Amino acid sequence: MKGAGRRTVLALLGFQALLIVLSCVLVRYDRSAAADANPSNDDQAIENMKVYSMFQDVHVMIFIGFGFLMTFLRRYGFSSVGFNFLLSAVIIQWAILCNGVSELGNGQSTIPVTLQSLLSADITAAACLISMGAVLGKTSPLQLMIMGIIETAVYAVNEFVAHHKLQVTDAGDSIFVHVFGAYFGLAVSMVLGKPRHSDLEGSSYNSDLFAMIGSVFLWICWPSFNSGGLVGSAQQRGVINTYLSLAASCVTAFAISVLSNPKRKFNMVHIQNATLAGGVAIGTAANLMVQPFGAMLIGSLAGILSVVGFQYIQPKLLAKMNLHDTCGVHNLHGMPGVFAGIVGALMAFLANKDNYGYNLYAHFPARVPPDGPEVADAQQADRDLQPNVGRSAVEQALFQLLALGITLVVAVVTGAVTGAILKTLATKSGKTGEEYFFDDSEHWEIEEDEEEEDNKHHETHEQVVDDKC
């Protein structure tokens, strides 16, 4: 049966009802947002509102940037933007619950919601949209929804363990969003299998132009993505480093795109994607003292890495491993994200009090000594500082790499399991054929198609009349 199907409708309405019930039981406004808040909370409310401009940038990235970036498929534009819209709307609600579970306990019986919660929910949605890019055109709305629900829960657990147990830093979420989302999606795609060649798996002049709109929105707003969760000087460094890294990756992406083309022309796929790689690559170290030249160097290398991935690595993965990656998320998010994790480990190794002062402990809490006069001195600069395990720079760098490795393993394993679930769902529903891959007509009413069918019917009718005459 063509169309989204009754099961999709029931799943959407059923899960939305479940979200409402769970929110009724568990979710409440934070005290700073409550109508009966004490005037003493006004300062906190003002601080929270400072997040709004960056939250709005990230919101634009999720719903416009990612959505339009995926419109490059010439007959899948409705689905690219529409399913991006739908999946994001589901995930941001589910993410508030999943991310907030860690708030429960220790006398806290509800999940408090602030603007920071909404920002975190949007960032969680980004991981799911990255995974969607790997399977774009090959999955139904119901499959995407199930994938997003599972991925969000796993994402929340992985990030909680990394931040609270391993105590690593990842300011721009390059490890926990980009690496996790990319390799989760690639594992799903691997299990679903490589589709047969389709003439519709390609772009047109107009579809590439629409995709470029998404790229530009992402490029402009990316500094907010990397620094929205930061404060003070760290936030300013996050914006500066991301800005410069993006600019550098844009330049090298254009240059290497020409060098990799026998005709010495720009490739629009490279320009749509590799120009953004600098934002991914600087993410983990966005708040650290990489210095402007370091940010530009990281961005330059990321642009080169991404173009090489699109031009040479992706075709080999498809030919040798049957790994089909519709949007090339391995090249924009996967490899640059791993690069970001390595850069983060290097910066953790180089970090010391000469460069950071007592802010070193704000960036790397595990490096706070367990006790002693140094802790007392640091607490004079930061009253919230607590004694910790007193890691060395080498130990912190190793923990950064450990978090990267764990994230990769968790993403691949849980992605493969999710892919098996989606494949089973497709088999049971009888929708295992590929005739509607990369084609909007399976799920959308398309007026031009109806007009073409009417015209064909009219022409056939006229031909019959002529033959009778």
Automatic annotation (TrEMBL):
<feature type="transmembrane region" description="Helical">
    <location>
        <begin position="397"/>
        <end position="422"/>
    </location>
</feature>
<dbReference type="Pfam" id="PF00909">
    <property type="entry name" value="Ammonium_transp"/>
</dbReference>
<feature type="transmembrane region" description="Helical">
    <location>
        <begin position="144"/>
        <end position="163"/>
    </location>
</feature>
<dbReference type="InterPro" id="IPR029020">
    <property type="entry name" value="Ammonium/urea_transptr"/>
</dbReference>
<feature type="domain" description="Ammonium transporter AmtB-like">
    <location>
        <begin position="47"/>
        <end position="428"/>
    </location>
</feature>
<feature type="transmembrane region" description="Helical">
    <location>
        <begin position="240"/>
        <end position="259"/>
    </location>
</feature>
<dbReference type="GO" id="GO:0097272">
    <property type="term" value="P:ammonium homeostasis"/>
</dbReference>
<comment type="similarity">
    <text>Belongs to the ammonium transporter (TC 2.A.49) family. Rh subfamily.</text>
</comment>
<feature type="transmembrane region" description="Helical">
    <location>
        <begin position="205"/>
        <end position="225"/>
    </location>
</feature>
<dbReference type="GO" id="GO:0005886">
    <property type="term" value="C:plasma membrane"/>
</dbReference>
<keyword id="KW-0472">Membrane</keyword>
<feature type="transmembrane region" description="Helical">
    <location>
        <begin position="76"/>
        <end position="97"/>
    </location>
</feature>
<feature type="transmembrane region" description="Helical">
    <location>
        <begin position="295"/>
        <end position="313"/>
    </location>
</feature>
<feature type="transmembrane region" description="Helical">
    <location>
        <begin position="175"/>
        <end position="193"/>
    </location>
</feature>
<feature type="transmembrane region" description="Helical">
    <location>
        <begin position="51"/>
        <end position="69"/>
    </location>
</feature>
<feature type="transmembrane region" description="Helical">
    <location>
        <begin position="334"/>
        <end position="351"/>
    </location>
</feature>
<feature type="compositionally biased region" description="Basic and acidic residues">
    <location>
        <begin position="454"/>
        <end position="469"/>
    </location>
</feature>
<keyword id="KW-0812">Transmembrane</keyword>
<dbReference type="InterPro" id="IPR024041">
    <property type="entry name" value="NH4_transpt_AmtB-like_dom"/>
</dbReference>
<feature type="region of interest" description="Disordered">
    <location>
        <begin position="447"/>
        <end position="469"/>
    </location>
</feature>
<protein>
    <recommendedName>
        <fullName>Ammonium transporter AmtB-like domain-containing protein</fullName>
    </recommendedName>
</protein>
<dbReference type="GO" id="GO:0008519">
    <property type="term" value="F:ammonium channel activity"/>
</dbReference>
<keyword id="KW-1133">Transmembrane helix</keyword>
<dbReference type="InterPro" id="IPR002229">
    <property type="entry name" value="RhesusRHD"/>
</dbReference>
